[in-house]
From TrEMBL:
CDD domains: SLC6sbd_Tyt1-Like. The lineage of its organism: Bacteria, Pseudomonadati, Pseudomonadota, Gammaproteobacteria, Pseudomonadales. Keywords: Membrane, Symport, Transmembrane, Transmembrane helix, Transport. It comes from Pseudomonas zhanjiangensis. InterPro entries: Na/ntran_symport, SNS_sf, YocR/YhdH-like. It is found in: Membrane. This is Transporter. The keyword Transferase does not apply. Belongs to the sodium:neurotransmitter symporter (SNF) (TC 2.A.22) family.
Length: 467
């Protein structure tokens, strides 16, 4: 029986380690860096409301689906889906979804590593005391100085990619487990300290309003962005959670576990937003400032409080660690797959894949400076261009990879996973994996997986197309 298989890559000691690993994967730059800046770009409360709705109705059911597919298949996502599809008498081409997800995860890693590299640079800056008493202009200039310099970006990008490869090359995250147990609560603690600081700025309510004031007119503008971000922040739609599920003990309950991971992830994002926006308003900055938001606002806060630089140092270390525990989960699905497929050593497979991601990441490095004019997906007056140098509209390389993965590949991947669980594996298999105590609750959850989550993804896509 499929359920008795064991993965060749290893297994978690208990479901706690799964929670730790999945939370480590989910909580990352998406929560602390991306969520606040996207909320800023898409106008605040309406975006937050859509995001929360997508987490509850679409993100969590998909996370459940991924976890149970992984645990039942006990292999890399591609091979797990292939085996389970064949077992269920369905087409083995279902595994294509996992293949595309795997590629999406590698693409995300390519730019994630660059941004995580920024936090490494800021660790050094805070350590040197470069941000003491800094003004809003000074903080903006410091961030600009970093992104303008391709060599500095390359250095940190390279270092971060090596860190990621080292952990994955060594095998299933045992080394990280112990540090994560300390690091994650510490990260949360520091976020609360930051929240405390933002309360003293006198702009807390303005920040709060910005996050939670619901303006229905703004819903249409950011609905796909909100759904894409819900996938991104939960790490679903690419197979990262699926591969972690493959290492989960059979007797562990999936439902409560997944819920815990989702709640923690949401809590960290909201806390980060509540901590950052008051500082943005107090400093007279624009909330819609884009990807630099966190890297400009945090130094202002840390540069202007007692012991701020030391706190800032610790904070950026934790951001880097949170990013690190996420980045490894982007590499794992592909590493597991190619180890199974080629029989080569984990170290070899990891090196090759990390190098590939590093190369693609160089496109992101350059998109902030010398390559800023290289535009992709340009809808100009003279029609569509896939690539155009110096075009007015369009997206630079970083934006393009982010757009392609978060808005398109993640939702499609998630849709395929949840359809697979709900319709191909079917009720009995899902019941067997979830083994829930209350039949009514199971009916509700199964209905979410089978109908609500897939419909949710489709509705958002249609809403976006007809905008
Ligand atoms: N969830 C991670 C974050 O919020 C990003 C991630 C996406 C990780 C996809 C794994 C897979 O930072």
């Amino acid at each position: 029986m499929a359920k008795d298989k064991v993965s060749i890559h290893g297994a978690w000691a208990s479901r706690w380690v799964f929670i730790l690993a999945a939370t480590g994967s989910a909580v990352g730059l998406g929560n602390i860096w991306k969520f606040p800046y996207m909320t800023g770009v898409y106008g605040g409360g309406a975006f937050v409301a859509m995001y929360l709705l997508c987490i509850a109705l679409v993100g969590l059911p998909i996370m459940l689906a991924e976890t149970l597919i992984g645990r039942r298949g006990r292999q890399s996502p591609v091979n797990a889906m292939k085996a389970l599809a064949v077992e269920a008498g369905a087409s083995r081409h279902w595994s294509l979804a996992a293949l595309i997800g795997m590629v999406a995860a590698l693409l995300i890693l390519s730019f994630y590593s660059v941004v995580a590299g920024w936090s490494l640079d800021y660790i050094v800056g805070m350590g040197r005391g470069a941000f003491g008493g800094i003004t809003a202009e000074g903080a903006g200039a410091a961030f600009g100085g970093l992104t303008d310099d391709p060599w500095r970006l390359t250095l940190w990008h390279t270092l971060f990619m090596v860190l990621t490869a080292v952990v994955i090359g060594r095998g299933v995250v045992a080394g990280l487990e112990r540090s994560l147990r300390i690091m994650m609560p510490l990260l949360f603690g520091l976020l609360v300290v930051l929240l405390g600081y933002s309360l003293t700025t006198g702009y807390f309510m303005q920040g709060f309003d910005f996050l939670f004031h619901f303006d229905p007119d703004k819903v249409r503008g950011g609905i796909l962005a909100a759904m894409g971000h819900a996938f991104f922040t939960l790490s679903v739609g690419v197979g990262s959670i699926m591969v972690y599920g493959a290492y989960m003990p059979k007797n562990a309950s999936i439902g409560g576990t997944v819920l815990a991971v989702g709640l923690l992830d949401t809590l960290v994002a909201l806390t980060a937003g509540l901590a950052l926006f008051p500082i943005v308003f107090a400093a007279g900055l624009e909330p819609g400032g884009g990807p630099g938001l966190m890297f400009v606002t945090l130094p202002i806060a840390f540069g202007n409080v007692a012991f701020g630089q030391a706190m800032g140092l610790v904070f950026f270390v934790l951001v880097a660690v949170a990013a690190w525990s996420s980045s490894i989960s982007m590499l794992e699905p592909a590493v597991a797959y190619f180890v199974e497929r080629t029989g080569r050593s984990r170290a070899q497979v990891t090196s090759v894949l990390a190098l590939l991601c590093w190369l693609v990441g160089m496109g992101t490095v350059l998109s902030f400076n010398v390559g800023a004019e290289a535009k992709f997906f340009v809808f100009g007056d003279d029609g569509f261009h896939l690539f155009q140098w110096g075009a007015e509209g369009g997206r630079n390389f970083f934006d393009s990879v982010d757009y392609l993965t978060s808005r398109i590949l993640l939702p499609l991947g998630g849709l395929a996973f949840v359809l697979f669980a709900g319709w191909v594996l079917g009720r009995e298999a899902v019941r067997d994996e979830l083994s829930m105590r209350y039949p009514r609750l199971f009916t509700l959850v199964f209905w979410l997986i089978r109908i609500v989550a897939p419909l949710g993804v489709l509705i958002v896509f249609v809403a976006e197309l007809t905008k």
